[in-house]
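Feature request disguised as a bug: please show the residue count (1066) next to alpha-L-rhamnosidase in the output. Example input:
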Amino acid sequence: MNVAIRPTSGTPTFQAASNDEGDGLYRPHELLTALRDEPIGIAQTRPRLWWQVPVVPGVGGDQLSYQIQLSRSPEGFADGAPIQSTPEIRSSQSTAVPWPFERLTSRQIAFWRVRVRIGRPGGDSVLTGWSEPAKVVVGPLGPRDWDGATGIWTEGGAYVRPADPGPALCMNGTFSARFKVTGKSAGVFFRISVDCQDGYLWRFYADERKLAKVHMRNGHENPIATVDLPDGIDLHDYVDLSINVDGNHAGTFINDIPVDSDDDIAFDGPSYGFKTVAGESLAVKNATIVPLNETEPVFQASYDDDSVVPPYAHVADGAMAIDENAFGLLGDVLPGDYWALLRHDFDLPDGQITGAYLYATGRSPFGARQHVYRVWVNDAYAGQGPTRDIGRRAYETHDVTPLLRAGATNTIAFQAWTQTGGRVQALLDVHYADGHVETIVTGPEWQGRPGLDWLPWSGDMNVKVNYFVAPREDIDARHEPLGWKAPHYAGVDFHPVALRGVIDNLHADDSAGIGRIEYHPTAITKLGPGRWLFDAGVERVYSVRADLVVPRSLSGTELTLRMGEELNENGSARYELRSGIRYEDTWTLREGAQTLEHWGYRCFRYLEIDTVEDLDLSDAITFLNDVVPEPAQVGSFESSDDVLDEVWRLCANSMIENRNDLYMDTPTRERMPYEGDLLTRGRGEVVYSHSYDLLRKTCRYIVRIPGKFTEYKFMPIQMAYEEYLETGDADALAEDWALYEREQGLRWLNKDGLIEKDRKTPLNDDIIDWPQPKEIDGFEFTRVNTVVNAWQYAALDYLSKAAEVSGRHDDARSFRRLAERMRDSMNRQIFDERLGAYHDGRDTDHTATHSTMYSAALGVPEENQMKRIGEWLVSDGRLDWVPVSCNAVAWFLEALYRTGQDQAALEIMRSHSETSWWSMIHRWGATQTMEAWSPDIKPNTTFSHPWGASPIVAIARWLLGVKLVEAGASEILVEPHPADLRHAKGDVITVRGPVSVDIEQVEDRTSLKVTMPGNTSGILRWPLRGAKLADVTVSYPDGGDGSTAKKKGDVLEVPLTAGTTSVIVR
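Example output, currently without the count:
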């Protein structure tokens, strides 16, 4: 029974007592607050709560009621501390529980704990002990909460080249350029902010002769309109472009021909520049910016000589060439001003510090697609940030309690790098036991210096791609300001900082912050005199630290660091990665003890160092893994097949090692989240770990920056709904409902309810699979595309379910009707009854694997079609050479299991073919899943691409058979499909705890054990294969006999409750 909960306004306060305890042997555990296991710096003042219910022998694990207590005292629940408490609330709810107290307060510490009553209605019950308390800190909620903190950066001083022009600032005026589009399209910024995140982007399409107008909001592209360009304009040849901006008006001209007039230009950005994405590029002959009512330009550049070009471009054929995936401003600062070292000494009074929280942010994390700062407190590493966000700017919360010293001088030190909008803003709250708080903020008292002498610019680590710009990190330790991160720095090279203005629109990071784990090499090899190879054992996101004591004779010695995912044939590190990234840095040593380490991150396994023969590096190297820490509760798997176990571990590594600021495609080449990656990555995370905050955060991010691929836009609603099933919390679905609805292709529906469109439009491109053409199995593109329609069908189905959950019942019925009509038309018009397969489209007879695979996996076929489809999928050698990518194979496995081809699915997962995970491990040496089956298929492949980790999902959901029936995992179906495995055993994680499945198949006897977590119920299904109920022995957690087991057709159904249920079928 559940009862409504209202916030307990005016709840009486009383003192905590140590004797207020139930059965202390059993306690709720794995508490989550706002989906965070360590809720430090959350944004919710009334966060939802989760806990796991223990299973008590003889009583069970059904929760009858709960009681929650809250302490707003820094002492928590110490004896005598004031606390508030709910009464014992009759409810079985243990997921997404509403906050039962008055709102929490910004920048204050609170603690909550819970105990539950376990038993059976009307029977015996046990009141558990109190859980371990969860500490909650709500971060700053609005501008007033930042207490006067402002953004700061270095003034530059002697380390900035005098010729650096700085951004050309001109809000109203005329931007002119002679340019041509050298790719498919190219973008021009105007009225853009100095971090290129807010303003306007005019994107010119050459072949289509169109102008797509975009309003940039915090990095997100919001389409305004598309304009047809006049006949006679050839953007593949040089044209004269001018954009005249005056107040709310912008007039666009090409070759003096007016092509657009817009009177709704509301954002007052001061800058101009360029932006390209994948497939885009341009060349610029000259560019000029002239303010309104003036004749002298504030910026003028001709690129037919040796003029300086910004870092995002280069000179080629007498023009400034801007390749794909680049952006920046005209007149942008040069790299000398990118580094900032910022520090502040402050005194703290005596007393007991009970908590200290540093709230920090910086601008902008988008150019490098990584953090802006690393921060130290009293020379001890404290964290990095901020993460990327859309529609708002994230700040991080660092718990620095153990790093501070009461009654002494303390120091905060930031090392920061960014291309644009350089600012760091921070606020430190130090809480004392007596209740008072000391606050330190960034402001004029801080000091800074550039870092160009210590960290000389040596170029970008990208050599073949331009998805981001991140520095190679050459270090000259002879110029390090020694001791600058510790109190009482004695140098004279730091000066008052530049005040860059308040960073506004701030919001707490929605996921746990990135932590640091130290690893030491698993193997060290001498490749030759002065040549060292360090093997980290597993590819991860690392920075490298070298701790050395250098004699005077070796001062000035260089270390050349080369990092790679693979080894060359001669045993050296392949530091020019296949993905187009070059990991090579040079570190110059000084005399004495020293520590050198990367500021940014790289993703690699092997480190090669070349140096002088006399330098011993055998104990010098530490790999610093920057990752969101893995939760305590994670999945497991083992079986009678060693290859399958290897494959599962490979996929688990891909989950563990890619917990970055977002679920990225790869940390090497692109560092971006995409819908196609999210679906496999997110589905893998929820079965592997008790972690949901990073998934929700990435869903929120992606739905605000939809990609260009048609099918990808239909995927986020599936992931969002599956996250709701996991957590039981529909808040995110409701908040972003309009965004999920917006991305559907309803505008393309024809009279039969099918999507009918051109393959490519400026904003939508049908993809099928990647890379092309190798991985699309000869797919024939038509206007009615089977794969596009299959994904749209699934999205409509999920939208219908999500609408029902959100109380949008009319929307639910509407989407259900659209889905049913689409499904019916696909089965009537595209399905081939004779073959048992779907054609690639309505106007072709070709049957690529993808058309049938996606349709079957996403629920398009009728039940009576499934067997025939399964037979078609395993025909024509598809099991010997998988004809789809290592990402799309997720849906191949899903389709095989859904059509009864369990053995075929198992054979694919344990295959030794060239298109197999075994090949990734043994042929290519991968320790995470790769972007493609092999470099032969995709030469620029990465070795850190979780989108290839689908076996972790297939094993959990199908082989072990654990599926969620009700939201919040309250009801679970266990229906294993082990095929011919003799043994399979694993833990599948749910928000309520792990579901453990243990299967033994020996000749004519099958043994199954299912252990359910507390506060759950479910059904075990198992094919009897002709056996009778008399041949079945069932042992229940409470000792009952098997009388409740049922036979439905040839399937055994056994009810499951918390604890272990054992079944033997003979």
